[in-house]
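Q: Focus on the shape:
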Amino acid sequence: MRFMSRMVALTGACLLAVAGVAIADENVEAQLEQLNDRMEQLEGQLEDANARVEAQEEVIRDAQLDEERPGRNALSPFIESTEISAWVAASYNINFRNPGKSGAAAGITNQGSFNGTYNLFYNESNTVQFDQAWIGINKAPTEESRAGYNLDLVAGAVNNGQPSGPYDIGVYAGSASYMMPLMDGFTIEGGLLATWQGAEVLQQTANLNITRGIQWNTQPVTNLGFTGALDMGGGLVVMVGMLNNSLGLDGPQDSNNNKAVTSRVNYSADKFSIGAGVNWSKNEIVTGGDHLLFNALLSVDPTDNLTAYVDYTMNVGDLGGADSMVHAISVATRLAVLDTTGIAVRGEYIKDDDGILLNDGSGGGNGWTVTGTIDHELTDTLTAKVEIRYDGADMPSGGGFWNGDGTAASQDGQVLGILQLVYEF
């Protein structure tokens, strides 16, 4: 009997336990169903909130309120679309014909003959020189932001003649631009503009050599005016514009009723680019009469480490009171022998019928230069350059370079050496 009682009690306990588990399972399932319903409600609320946020952002974009609000949202796109360039360059230069003398006796000053015309920004000998400090701020117009601007400030001996002194700060270029919405790629620009003509530029970091060639004197550097450039696609760009004068900023800016016309057609492909342009003016106040400048430029990049160009310029018309014709051509190339080291060579020839652009003043003649430059990156930001340059001239009327003792011009050649350091920020 005692055994039977225990068995009955044990069986009853098991039944109670099973019933309890069943009841517990029903409670858990009910709780899970309630939790699932709550999650579905939260997901629906979250979707509604996201939809409201997207609708608000669309309203803000349509009203352009995000561009007007001060703070990070308005400033960030401006900073991202603005390019800033800056560098400082200094050099030591020497004239090997007579390196122990200075001034006119060094043979490379601007006094008389072609010394200043040839060497341009390097008019002393045995001299340490502050070449150039540059700050450029540029925002190119785009379809998303059609307004643009450009401002370039320059100081140092290598400038465009605008500062009142050799080391004063001047404005190289300053302009505003706008990409028209009616014609894709058509951009108008007005102000103080860098010329479209020629290969070499004022920027010390953008040329293959340290010095500018004698062809530099046959081309404008900057002009006051406006241009309209149309990107026609496929690498073809066409530019036309109006300028105050055709040659540049030498002398008075404007004769009021007389203006100059500028134009250019450029075509670019993967390995080369070719372009031609014309500056033309009638009764040009700078040159003294009608003036036509024609420039053609061919640039090639056959390999990743080799670049070269051929630059031709012709000036026809009244250049300084007399009808004249000047032809100038330069050929230059640079080979990157290492990732951090390159060798550049430039050769030039100029034929000046009346000696106007050669600054001889005694009749026509020919001039030429041969320049070799080695550049090496000491660090990611600091580059050292060494250059040797030979200047030659053939002037039938007897002109030439200054003698070493500062007497009248009679020398027919000179050699210039330059060591330069350039730091780019």
